Amino acid sequence: MRKVIKEMLGVEVKATEMLHGHYGNIIFDSRTPLEQEEAEALLDRVLTGLGSADRALLLRELRGHVDDRGIFFVRLDKQELLLGRLVLGGSDPVKISVKLSVKGERAEELIKGCLT
Predict the structure, then answer these.
(1) Which one of 4, 23, 78, 112 has the minimum C-beta count within 10 Å?
(2) What b/e sequence results for 72-88 when a residue is b if at least 16 CB atoms lie within 10 Å of its CB, and e otherwise?
């Protein structure tokens, strides 16, 4: 999965921790601290890589993807990612979180600008 994340998202995974979910399923928590330029590139790659239907859905549900602290998060379908496609997904996802330089409504406006 590290190779796919590097190829598809341009991010090199630095640390991975194996966790166990509520039902005993294995969850890999991979984290990579990024400089601002790297985070912006990741955000751009994800938002521009989504198909038009996913971009429209994300735009409609934007409040559910940006919190009050200015953290934007999105879940990508892991199986589609392995096939080389960026698609929103909820089951067995790759979760991406990016702390934006602005908070609240300004954060929403920033993401909106990237999606339109």
Answers:
(1) 23
(2) bebbbbbebbeeeebbb
Local mean pLDDT, 10-residue blocks, the chain (116 residues)? 90 89 88 88 93 95 93 95 94 89 90 88
Q: Return the structure tokens found at 54.
A: 């996913």
State how far the Cα of 78 lies from the Cα of 86, in Å rounded to an integer: 9
HEC per residue, the chain: CHHHHHHHHCCCCCEEEEEECCCCCEEEEEECCCCHHHHHHHHHHHHHHCCHHHHHHHHHCHHHCECCCCEEEEEEEHHHHHCCCCCECCCCEEEEEEECCCCHHHHHHHHHHHHC
The arrangement of secondary structure in 34-115, i.e. its CATH architecture, is: 2-Layer Sandwich (3.30)
What pairs with residue 18 in β-bridges? Answer: 28
Q: Is the pTM of this model over 0.70?
A: yes
What are the domain boundaries of the chain?
A: 34-115
